[in-house]
Amino acid sequence: MLIHKHSLSEVYYEVVLMENPTRDLTKFGNRELKIAGQLLQQYAENSTNFLTHGVEVWFNMNSGYVFLSDEEYNVGVLNRNCTKIIQFYSCPECGKEGTEEDDIICINCGYCKEHCQCKIVND
Ligand SMILES: [Zn+2]
Ligand SMILES: [Zn+2]
After folding, report:
1. Is 2 among the domain residues?
2. How far is the CA of 104 from the centre of ligand 2 (A)?
3. 56: left (phi over 0), alpha (psi -120 to 50) or beta
4. What pLDDT digit, counting tens, does each position of 45-102 carry?
5. What is the pTM of this model?
6. Within-domain flag for 1
7. Which domain holds residue 86?
């Protein structure tokens, strides 16, 4: 996979948003419309402070993800229990994607655990 060194949000933009996402609700199926409704409900009820301005609902027809994205391409998805919105990360180094529920991503730096930038140790 072709991944350049970009900010986290730009990588996500390349990897996911460029793969044919839509904001057109007529392209959402019933399942996706319900997820979008749950996203909006959680967005109304709970703070999602990683999402700032220009927040929109998107559906990616390739991945099946329904998500919120702000103008800086921060991305929020529903957690497994649909009780809150959690941030979706994509490792800038290798493109691995996940949330705090996946044990793939270090949520402190947004890189995957293998490429975590939090403790750079000199050998
Ligand atoms: Zn990585
Ligand atoms: Zn880290």
Report:
1. no
2. 11
3. beta
4. 988 999 999 999 999 888 888 999 999 989 999 999 989 999 999 999 999 999 999 9
5. 0.78
6. no
7. 8-115
- Phi, psi (rounded to 5 degrees) for 22: -140, 150
Q: With the C-alpha atoms ordered 99, 75, 82, 109, is the resulting torsion angle positive or negative?
A: positive
3 within some domain = no
Looking at residue 62, the DSSP 8-state letter turns out to be T
Counting the structural domains of the chain, the total is: 1
Q: Report CA(111)–ligand 2 centroid distance (Å).
A: 6
Q: Please tell me the total number of residues recorded for the chain in this structure.
A: 123
Question: By the 8 A CB rule, do 90 and 8 touch?
Answer: yes
Q: The tokens 């949520």 sit on which residue?
A: 107
Q: Please, what sign has the CA dihedral across residues 32, 35, 41, 47?
A: negative
CA 97–ligand 1 middle distance (angstroms)? 9
Answer yes or no: is 33 within a domain: yes
